[in-house]
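Entry for the shared binder. Reason: the reviewer on the internal report wants the predicted structure included alongside the sequence.
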Amino acid sequence: QVQLVESGGGLVQAGGSLRLSCAASGRTFSNYHMGWFRQAPGKEREFVSAITWSGGMTDYADSVKGRFTISRDNAKNTVYLQMNSLSPEDTAVYYCAAAPSLLVTSLLLRLPTKYRYWGQGTQVTVSS
């Protein structure tokens, strides 16, 4: 089992920044690719960003590319999502998730079904 706990969400004005963190415990963190997803009210959960187990590859949804940056610190068992130039369209609950690196290739990290463990989510609200 891997337990994931997100933090860093909150209320921010448009144009502002937030840094989300996701702390993992349980099994070896570096055995997992990590992803961030979000879900706005009335909408399906959508892919935001992913990073491979080593941090060697990252991927972003077109809607956040150039504004968000994903990173990880395997020594701290933590993955981060730096969010800049936030807009009201970024308002959602943000979830981090872990996909076993031996079973999931980096090409599939946009698919939520490939992730085995999920955090409880953290609310991000961007006011206009």
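Summary line for the report: The first strand starts at residue 2 and ends at 7.
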